[in-house]
Specification:
The complex is a heterodimer. By secondary structure, chain A is mainly α. Chain A has two domains: about 110 residues; about 120 residues, no CATH class. In chain A, helix 2 packs antiparallel against helix 4 and helix 7 runs parallel beside helix 9. Chain A has a two-stranded antiparallel ribbon with strand order 1-2. Chain A is built from nine helices and two strands, in the order ααααααααββα. Chain B is an alpha/beta fold. Chain B has a single domain, classed as P-loop containing nucleotide triphosphate hydrolases (Rossmann fold). Helices cover about 35% and strands about 25% of the residues of chain B. The longest helix of chain B has 14 residues. Classes of the chains: A mainly alpha, B alpha/beta.
């Protein structure tokens, strides 16, 4: 039944995500070609051309940034909206009377949220690659006259030098997203236990959890002897921007702590869905 | 024959408010049962408990001798007293949804009934009139070959013509071996189709039994008796 739940969940959420994906990718493509055109106008030497190109660049740049922010936030945001709406409001009368286990309902929402977040992340990377495919993008903002080949070499070197860090950071990002989603799930579920002011209580629980967990994570990290926010030794080699291995280890410690917290939150959410469902 | 539904000392509290206070009930298979009581008597709470969207405070609740869970949800077809279908879906997608999740769903029957109402299956749920939406929900629920149907206020808030359609749909489409629990306070409209009657007041049982026996015993229609018992 999990497969069927996932099928319907993906169908229901695709109608929200696909238009955002298309919009952001289209803006990226437009910006990428605009940068080339505007660079030439900019280099034409006239002041009017320079101002014109800056204005256009600013408008499209801002649209792209807003689009990317929407994209990054949309995965967790849609996931929490679907969970709340589909499980604890009128739609819950359908969801919770399906002949499926509560754990399957929870898993379908979580998996869908995580998958869409990964796809959103991939689209963001794709957009950056589209932008980075223009060597003029850096020349547009900096006067340094670097050769195109040098630019691409520097880009690839940075990725290759820090591949392990990049992979670790992506896994950390994924676990952070899982924890954000599960924190919301558990807050909404605890709010559902109340007979009145469910949404208000959910929000209060969420803020309480965020503060308490934030402090707990801080203490755990200090005990573990890691300080995630200390960036003094961020780079092993400041010439090549190779990130230090120590920092990667810290990311892993942080990831494990977040993962354990997520598991606890999901366990409590499941417990409430299974034994304390209270659809008024 | 074993009961399709029974509860023992069933209690449901919402904070300090007691919605059901130690209810004991039994329902046999093949019966149309009227769950009657004024607003706030606990009818919807009882139905929600059987459907599994509320959990009891204490007491026991069995459907087909099983505790409420996945097994009972497979054989219980529930029509809530509210619109519970996602509004962005089309009628056809909702049929697909039921077809996917319920083994006992008769797709042909549902499609035939939708067609007979001249409802376009490609129409979105949000574009349906209130009456048609209620009919679509009822069609989906009654197109299942379930063992227990729970219909919470199916005729409240619809015009008399729609009421006739709904009652006719219920009588002509339910599985004869199954039982139906219909909660309502509009008794005169459904009195004729009821086999058994359960009357509850402030969460406690007032009366339960065969509708004909009750009419004979009190020399009154169920509607008249209801008005007398629940006189304000």
């Amino acid at each position: 039944m999990l497969g069927k739940l996932l099928k319907h969940e993906f169908k229901a959420t695709a109608r929200l995500f696909i238009p955002i994906f298309i919009m952001v990718t289209a803006i990226s493509v437009a910006v990428r070609f605009l940068v080339d055109i505007l660079y030439d106008i900019n280099n034409g030497g006239t002041q009017a051309g320079e101002i014109f190109s800056m204005i256009i660049a600013f408008i499209f740049g801002a649209a792209l940034v807003i689009g990317m922010i929407c994209l990054i936030l949309s995965g967790p945001a849609v996931s929490l909206y679907r969970f709340y709406k589909n499980v604890y409001t009128d739609e819950g009368y359908l969801t919770n009377t399906l002949p499926v286990k509560p754990v399957s309902i929870l898993a379908s929402k979580l998996i869908t949220g995580i998958v869409w977040t990964i796809v959103s992340g991939a689209i963001v990377v794709l957009c950056f690659l589209i932008l980075a495919s223009s060597s003029k993008i850096i020349l547009f903002f900096a006067d340094d006259n670097i050769y195109e080949s040098a630019y691409y070499n520097a880009l690839f070197d940075f990725i290759l030098d820090n591949i392990w860090f990049i992979i670790s950071f992506m896994i950390f990002g994924l676990i952070s997203v899982t924890m954000s989603i599960s924190s919301v799930y558990v807050s909404v579920s605890i709010g559902n236990l109340a007979n009145r002011h469910k949404v208000l209580i959910s929000i209060a629980v969420y803020f309480f959890l965020t503060i308490v967990l934030g402090m707990a994570i801080g203490i755990i990290l200090v005990i573990a002897g890691t300080n995630f926010f200390d960036t003094t030794n961020l780079f092993e080699d400041t010439e090549t921007f190779k990130l230090s291995g120590e920092y990667t280890v810290m990311i892993w410690v942080y990831s494990i702590v977040l993962f354990i917290i997520s598991l606890i939150e999901l366990f409590v959410t499941h417990l409430i869905m299974k034994h304390k469902l209270n659809l008024a | 024959m074993s009961n399709i539904f029974e509860c023992r000392q069933l209690v449901k509290k919402y904070g300090k408010l007691t919605a059901l206070s130690g209810l004991n009930l039994e329902i046999e298979p093949g019966k149309i049962v009227g769950l009657l009581g004024p607003n706030g008597s606990g009818k919807t709470t009882l139905i929600k408990l059987i459907a599994g969207i509320l959990r009891p405070t204490s007491g026991r609740l069995l459907v087909n001798r099983s505790e409420i869970g996945m097994e009972t949800k497979e054989i219980v077809s529930y029509l809530p007293e509210r619109n519970y279908i996602p509004k962005y879906l089309k009628v056809r997608q909702m049929i697909d949804y039921f077809d996917d999740f319920y083994k006992d769903f008769n797709r042909e029957k549902a499609e035939r009934m939708i067609k007979s109402l001249s409802i376009d299956p490609d129409k979105k749920i949000k574009a349906l009139s209130k009456g048609n939406l209620e009919k679509v929900q009822l069609i989906l629920v009654m197109s299942r070959e379930a063992k227990l149907y729970l219909l919470d206020e199916p005729i409240a808030g619809v015009d008399p013509a729609a009421r006739d359609y709904i009652l006719n749909t219920i009588i002509t489409n339910y599985n004869p071996d199954a039982s139906i629990i219909i909660s309502t306070h509009l008794i005169s409209d459904i009195e004729n189709i009821l086999d058994d009657v359960i009357m509850i007041k402030t969460g406690a049982l007032v009366m339960a039994g065969n509708a004909d026996d009750i009419r004979e015993q009190y020399q009154k229609s169920i509607d008249e008796l209801f008005r007398e018992v629940f006189k304000c």
